[in-house]
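USER:
Class, as today's exercise, take the chain set out below, and explain how the chain folds.
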Amino acid sequence: MKIAVDFDGTIVTHEYPNIGKERPFAIDVLKRLQTEEKHQLILWSYRTGELLEEAVAFCRERGLEFYAVNKNDPEEEYSPETPRKLNVDMFIDDRDIHGMADWTYIYKKIKGEADLDNGMGMNPHNRVRTKPKNIILRFGEWLDKLGDEIDKRKR
């Protein structure tokens, strides 16, 4: 399986343009997905240029090498005609509608061993709680607030 993985907020805490602290088990889980499960990992990041090189070096220093970085295939060359949509089976990203899951849950979910959902995607106990860094609320948070507001009006 090809899996695209975000860097900021996913592998490390979100402190862009700096590199944040490594999230617990992130590198270990990704290395296991590569070696034990034989998945191809693609680093899919907002970072470019020197900032992207720093992220790749950060992972490499911890023994994590990616199949490709910000592209579908290591041989792919960028041109304006190159589609920016990745051809992957899964994305791991802190901007998921349900928020960032903890890495143990992600590993178990990919292996098919996760104690599954509440019908909405992810058990809330498996989320990593993070505060948004900007004024734009994540869609999932907006839906939660909208649901709370509707409940208040019903009372």
User: Anything to note?
Assistant: The radius of gyration is 17 Å.
